[in-house]
Design goal:
There is one protein chain. By secondary structure, the protein is an alpha/beta fold. It has 3 helices and 3 strands; from the N terminus they run E-H-E-H-E-H. It has a 3-stranded parallel β-sheet, with helices on both faces. Helix 1 links the parallel strand 1 (2-7) and strand 2. Helix 2 (34-44) packs parallel to helix 3 (60-69).
């Protein structure tokens, strides 16, 4: 089962996306801020991270760069 971390400040969006992914056999973790997302990632090391761009405490690009630094180079991939 793939663990997915969704980071978004909109609770309705988190709920909707979570339900859709769980229905397709994904284990889903959610966070409503970048800081919470980084903490979740550090504890669970999700294989997939989906983030809103315009977070209250940073932007999605900076958040994903932080996550990428937490992963061994052979596993991190970005476009």
């Amino acid at each position: 089962m793939i663990t997915t971390l969704i980071i978004d400040s909109d609770s309705k969006y988190l709920e909707t996306l979570s339900k859709g992914l769980e229905a397709n056999n994904y284990k889903v973790l959610t966070a409503s801020s970048a800081m919470e997302g980084i903490e979740q990632f550090a504890m669970k090391n999700s294989l997939l991270v989906i983030s809103e761009y315009d977070l209250d405490d940073t932007n999605g690009i900076k958040l994903l760069a932080s996550v990428k630094r937490m992963v061994p180079a052979k596993h991190a991939r970005s476009r």
